[in-house]
Amino acid sequence: MSDLIxxxxxADHVGETVRVGGWITHLRSKGKIAFVVLxxxxxxxxxxxxxxxxxxxxxxxxxxxxxxxxxxxxGEVKEDARSAGGVEIGVSGLExxxxxxxxxxxxxxxxxxxxxxxRELWLRSRRQHAILRIRHEIQAGVCEFLDGDGFFRVDTPIxxxxxxxxxxxxxxxxxxxxxxxxxxQTGQLYVEAAMMSLRKVYCFGPTxxxxxxKTRRHLTEFWMVExxxxxxxxxxxxxxxxxxxxxxxxxxxERRRPELEILGRxxxxxxxxxxxxxxxxxxxxxxxxxxxxxxxxxxxxxxWGDDFGAPHEVLLSELFDRPVFIERYPAKIKAFYMxxxxxxxxxxxxxxxxxxGFGEIIGGSQRIHDEALLRxxxxxxxxxxxxxxWYLDLRRFGSVxxxxxxxxxxxxxxWITGIAHIREAIAFPRTLYRIYP
Length: 437
Ligand code: 4AD
Ligand code: MG
Prior knowledge:
Number of strands: 18
Strand order of the largest sheet: 6-10-11-18-17-16-13-12
Distance between the termini: 31 Å
Bound molecules: 4-amino-1,4-dioxobutan-2-aminium adenosine-5'-monophosphate, magnesium ion
Number of domains: 2
CATH topology of the largest domain: BirA Bifunctional Protein, domain 2
Shape: elongated
Radius of gyration: 26 Å
CATH class of the largest domain: Alpha Beta
Mean pLDDT: 97
């Protein structure tokens, strides 16, 4: 089948007879002429079948076609100014590769539950296709930026012996005679070790949290990229984040504009995503929430030391026209490894990056590099220091100030595509209520 031409290259073959393999997305016939719309993953093309120009047998086969059948079409590529790709195919032959009787997804409106139950097929729809392409572009953009900036990728373990982001969201499994193992909530602790070898590193893989929350932004399995850099302080960390995210957004705008348009995304809002991003402190954010929260009490009141919920993050992010850093949260609501602000130890040298109208897509911080302080924090968080021997060791042998962050891929897809629910941001979402298909 190496002679098949893909739809994205058809315009180079005008006037030639080619073979194209794909799936049928749309069928229409008017007596002696039939229109077959074919997609092949690279594009969509209309194929025109005229009864008296093809064998009887071919025309009969076309009449039997159904949606999502796979076919190989033979025909002449013709210029057609009205079509998206600028060409159509005048069919001379057609073979059915795989039939598709009674394809369950029809043009009528299906409920989300039905579509999720048929996720393996839903992925073929125009909208899901666009989202998957943008997701790929985001991931490629992240790697392109980091690789170009001198980072090394290090793959961190998924089966781990202890918690890293709180004990309440651990998935556990039995690990032979060695007791319980947990699915990694983050690769961070391990990239901190690798950072001491390679200076600038990142891990990029699936992470797991037994989140009991049923929201439009939580998955139990999500992908995260986590850069970690030696001799980098809190401010440098924020600069790295805004440079990386801007690079990713600009790459998506360059290469995936048609897909963003299919999804109806406001492109101007994305064009504005360039450094520097505004920065406000947790304290300032708290003031803003108190000032701007509607009188009707729809947004819960917060005291200093309370964590922000989704409604607070949405409210805050909507006050800015680009992503905004909220920095220096109270240390007690953040992870044990975060470096306290030397001038105000009750707050941590950390930041969450909130995307406009949406909320947190990055969490990051400078890390504690002093062994005694880290040990104290481990204990204060009710964790057992013996589980963290190796992690504490990093502070005993050539410890250096260092910082890093984690960007959630699905949250980023959600924001960049402008789709409403995280279940569409990954091919096969895992949530509290769904593990099929
Ligand atoms: O803020 P989090 O928990 O930070 C960490 O895991 C750090 N270890 C990262 C680091 O400093 N290396 O998670 C980071 C990001 C969040 O901002 C969010 O984008 C995403 O991971 N995330 C989730 N995405 C989907 N579903 C969930 N349940 C998520 N939990 C976190
Ligand atoms: Mg966070």
